[in-house]
Amino acid sequence: MSVYNTIEKMIRRFGDDICIMEDALRNRSKAIIQPLMYKNKMYLGGTALPAGFFDGGHYLMIAPASLKVKDYRRAVVEDANAKYTIKRVEMVKADNKELYIWAVLTPYYPPVEDDYEELDKCA
C-alpha cells in the first residue's frame, strides 16, 4: 500500500465531517481539525499580542489531497462546532505525489456592515 493511500484512509477513518463553502459551491469531505500548538507566530506572519488580548486562536487542518478548492482565500470551512477561514494552506508532497493538505485556520466572522458608510461625505 502506498503512503498516499495510507494517509487518505487514515484521514477518512479518523477525521470529522467538514464542508468547504466557496460562494454557492459546497464540497463535503473528512478532515482533522485541532488547536494549533505553536511557540511563536513567525510562520504565520503574525505579530506579538499584548497581554490579555485574545485573537480567536489558530487551528490546524489536515485534509485529503483529493479535496480540491479553487480559491482558499474566499473559502469557509465548516465542521460540527464552528466555521473557519483559511489563513495559510500548503500541499504536502513526497516523491512527486501530493499526500495531504496542511492548512492554518482562524475563526470565521461574517462581514460587518458600516452603518455610516453612506454618511461619510463631508457637508
Q: How would you describe this protein?
A:
Helix content is 10%, strand content 41%. It contains one helix and six strands, in the order αββββββ. The protein has one helix at residues 3-14; strands at 16-22, 25-35, 59-64, 76-78, 83-94, 97-107. It has a six-stranded antiparallel beta barrel. The longest helix is centred in the first third of the chain and has 12 residues, at 3-14. The mean pLDDT is 83.
Could you provide a short overview of the structure?
The chain is built from one helix and six strands; from the N terminus they run αββββββ.
Keywords:
single chain; mainly beta; 6-stranded antiparallel beta barrel; 1 helix; elongated
- Let me know the average pLDDT: 83
Strand content: 35-45%
Radius of gyration: 18 Å
Say how many strands there are. Answer: 6
The multimeric state of the shown protein is single chain
Q: Quick one: biggest sheet?
A: 6 strands, antiparallel, barrel
Based on secondary structure, the structural category is mainly beta
Show unreliable segments: none
Tell me the overall shape.
elongated
Helix content: under 10%
Query: Could you give the order of strands across the largest sheet?
Result: 1-2-3-6-5-4
